[in-house]
Design a protein that fits this description.
By secondary structure, this protein is of the alpha+beta class. It contains 34 helices and 12 strands. Helix 22 (457-470) runs parallel beside helix 24, helix 22 runs antiparallel to helix 28 and helix 25 runs antiparallel to helix 26. The chain is elongated. GO terms for molecular function: ATP binding; protein kinase activity.
Length: 799
């Protein structure tokens, strides 16, 4: 019961009650009588190191020296001396014995001997790391001896610990004391606690307790000897057991050997000052030491030195020990970028080092710095972030992108630099999938709408490509409202040929989002125009797109005829294996082309003319199953002809498809709208209409044609009113007079008529057809065009 109460009052395995830290597992080694534990804070769980020492009574010599060490560690501050956090002394009862324990809490560190085993460095990388560590300990000792006039008197391998960033730090201040050669009492703690130091680490004067010689020697004499002992233990890999072993120099690097021998001089006055060791030794001049030293004094360097250093750093980092780069250089670099002391090229080195981390470590060590850098006003930093966004974009969470990253990135859309606008645009390929629908609809699409009319043709092209790639991340309503307008109204009519090509490819890549009505009335009419585009690449893409969308229409028609309405509604390009790669290929080709501003001089007049002619041609082709492609390049101008509305266009493309597949389908498929003409007796309404049409044009020449009103099933081609329009332009004079037809009726053409040969026939001499005259062609003045000449001849001949 008493033991239980003691644990409750004095603390259990997690530490004493008044210690705000949890004590974890101990390390296998520590200096002197101390025990080194891993620990965590009870407040935030952060890692710490906890050192403890226990004595049987308050006057125990070890505890007295420990109190001296706690006092010194609390008051002495230096980057290479262990950082003090907290200390406490407790008294506990164990059975009938009272125990006194002193706890020191410091930053998280590991004994140097354990860290060396963990790193397992070899050859040059080992020597470079040892050089950096010795450089740090030498600075700490020099600070104590020369600046503070203190003597550590206990420098050895056990008194050195390593931080999480692989920095070496000096601790074990139990014997630390002031040094004043004129004051005999100044070396009191050293005199009192010298017995704590192993005899193998003591110089001759200290070993003999010759305090007069100690006071006459320089303040660095004792610690220079200890530094020599540390060098021996470090390179030999053995714990020093007796002073004579220091004569064995086989493992000491040759560049360090002269300084090593001067540190261990038998005469205290001739021992090398540690400050001189740092300045003069060629051993400390290596790539690792120079790199870290440059980073630590970065604020003292000018912009030229910084720029040169950071441009070399990515290649230099590959030659340095990987763990040191990740644990030491990477935090230094991230801090320098975050606080503005590093130049923009440092971002490349940061991301390269970050690529060597695991995903979890990258999110902790690199991403916070990158997110803060997006708020930087340095344009070079912003450019670097946008150029490398693909390297870290996937690691960013959607919330961070939407709330912290995008608001800063979006300022680049309206930047005066075209290069920055384009980089901002391309970065959206990675960031847009992580944006909320509210941000996409309320902000991103507004910027993209402006960029589609940007003065730079490359930016307009890439905007179209981006829309095609992020279409899957838009909601259905936004896709209906944006995609077709962006790709047809703007992209397909752009004067820059790669922009038109990008528009076609974007339509193909997003074809699964369009229904059959949109394809037939809004997409195909605009794409067909480009099959006569001046640019060969655009023409090629246009033909592929026409084939692709016609295939969709055909599949829909077949499913509709078979009664599968659900399947017809779901027909899209998602089943075509090449669909996903179309848009990506466009992006890579544009990247190879760069920014072809010289191609922007494409003649706008020629493009407009081609658009006008081809639009009218496409509307005429709809009802011409077999001969339509032959007339696409016709020079006749139909710009005054009205473009069919959506239902007409849909029906027309459906008839074209069934005309192509006529040999595979029954004679009835695709022609259901003409079936009433095959009835034995027309309806009364239709009979009245036909009678009204016959009366104004009754002439002797037209009588033989009466017998052919109803088409025959053998070797006859059905043609509607638009076919008659093509005939009025290019066909020779018919043998009989034509006759006005109803919009829903058809006439049969004899097998002997050859419409292809008729193109080269002599000028027609027959009278004007009522249908052509009704279309307003007679009002045109005489012109070299074929249609106008025919109308003039008809007018001169009279009725």
């Amino acid at each position: 019961m008493l033991k239980f109460l003691n644990r409750v009052v004095g603390g259990s395995g997690s530490g004493p009650k008044d210690l705000p830290y949890n004590i974890g597992e101990p390390y296998p080694s520590a200096w002197g009588s101390w025990t080194h534990f891993r620990g965590t804070s009870k407040d935030d769980g952060s890692q710490v190191s906890i050192f403890s020492i226990t004595g049987s009574n308050a006057q125990d010599g070890h505890l007295a020296a420990a109190r001296n060490g706690v006092k010194r560690l609390r008051t002495v501050r230096h980057p290479n001396i262990l950082s003090f956090l907290h200390s406490t002394e407790t008294e506990t009862m164990d059975a009938s014995t009272t125990k006194h324990t002193i706890y020191i809490v410091t930053e998280p560190v590991m004994p140097l001997s354990e860290k060396i085993k963990e790193l397992s460095l070899q050859n040059i990388q080992r020597d470079e790391y040892y050089a950096w560590g010795l450089h740090q300990i030498a600075k700490a000792v020099s600070f104590l001896n020369n600046d503070c006039k203190l003597v550590h008197a206990n420098v050895c391998l056990a008194s050195v610990v390593v931080t999480q960033t692989l920095d070496w730090k000096l601790h074990a201040f139990d014997v630390l004391s002031e040094f004043d050669g004129s004051n005999e009492a100044s070396a009191g703690p050293m005199l009192q606690y010298a017995w704590l130091v192993g005899s193998q680490y003591k110089p001759v004067e200290l070993l003999k307790s010759d305090w007069a010689a100690v006071r006459k020697s320089p303040p660095w004499a004792i610690d220079s000897w200890g530094l020599g002992c540390l060098i021996y233990e470090l390179f030999s890999g053995l714990k020093l057991s007796k002073t004579e072993e220091l004569r064995n120099t086989a493992s000491i690097p040759k560049s360090l050997l002269p300084d090593y021998q001067r540190l261990l001089s038998a005469m205290p006055s001739r021992r090398l000052n540690t400050s001189k060791l740092i300045e003069n030794s060629a051993y400390f001049q290596n790539k690792l030491v120079d790199t870290i030293h440059f980073m630590e004094i970065l604020n003292l360097k000018d912009s030229v030195e910084k720029d040169t250093f950071f441009r070399k750093l990515p290649n230099l980092a590959e030659q340095l020990p990987r763990q040191i780069v990740l644990k030491k250089l990477l935090p230094l670099l991230a801090s320098a970028l975050e606080f503005g002391s590093a130049a923009a090229p440092a971002l490349t080195a940061l991301l390269k080092m970050g690529s060597w981390l695991s995903i979890e470590e990258f999110s902790v060590k690199v991403l916070p710095t990158i997110v803060k850098l997006f708020a930087s006003n340095d344009r070079a930093i912003r450019v670097g972030l946008l150029q490398h966004v693909d390297q870290f974009g996937e690691s960013l969470s959607a919330q961070i992108v939407d709330e912290q990253v995008y608001p800063h990135v979006a300022t680049g859309f309206s930047d005066t630099s075209a290069f920055l606008r384009e980089l901002t645009l391309k970065s959206m390929l990675v960031l847009a999938p992580k944006l909320s629908q509210r941000t996409i609809s309320g902000s991103l699409l507004k910027y993209l709408s402006k960029l589609q009319v940007d003065e730079e043709p490359a930016i307009r092209t890439n905007t179209t490509i981006l829309l095609g790639n992020i279409a899957s991340h838009l909601n259905e309503g936004t896709r209906k409202r944006v995609l077709i307008n962006a790709f047809t109204v703007r992209a397909l009519r752009d004067t820059f040929s790669p922009a038109r090509g990008a528009g076609i490819m974007a339509l193909c890549a997003t074809s699964s989002y369009y229904d059959i009505t949109e394809i037939s009335t809004r997409i195909l009419p605009n794409v067909v125009v480009l099959i006569i585009d001046p640019d060969n690449d655009v023409r090629s893409k246009a033909f592929q797109a026409v084939d692709q969308f016609l295939q969709i229409v055909k599949q829909t028609y077949e499913k509709t005829n078979s009664g599968d309405t659900a399947g017809a509604a779901g027909v899209g390009m998602s089943s075509m294996p090449g669909n996903a790669s179309l848009l990506g290929w466009a992006m890579s080709s544009l990247t190879l082309k760069g920014k072809p501003a010289e191609q922007a001089s494409l003649a706008l007049v020629n493009t407009s003319t081609s658009l006008t002619k081809t639009t009218s041609d496409s509307s005429s082709v709809m009802d011409t199953p077999s001969t339509a492609p032959a007339h696409v390049s016709a020079t006749t101008d139909f710009s005054d002809q009205h473009v069919p509305e959506s239902p007409t266009s849909t029906d027309g493309w459906g008839e074209l498809e069934n005309g192509i597949q006529e040999e595979h389908e029954s004679d009835k498929d695709g022609w259901d709208d003409i079936e009433p003409l095959e009835e034995p007796t027309p309806s009364p309404a239709l009979a009245n209409i036909q009678a009204a049409q016959k009366r104004p044009v009754l002439q002797p020449e037209s009588q033989p044609k009466q017998a052919s009103l109803r088409p025959k099933n053998t070797a006859k081609v059905v043609k509607d009113e638009d076919d008659d329009l093509w005939g009025s332009i290019a066909a020779p004079a018919p043998k009989t007079s034509s006759k006005a037809l109803n919009l829903k009726t058809s006439r049969a053409v004899d097998d002997d008529d050859d419409p292809w040969a008729a193109i080269a026939a002599p000028l027609p001499t027959t009278k004007a057809k009522p249908l052509a005259a009704g279309r307003g062609r007679g009002a045109k003045p005489a012109a070299p065009k074929l249609g106008a000449q025919r109308i003039n001849r008809t007018s001169s001949s009279g009725v």
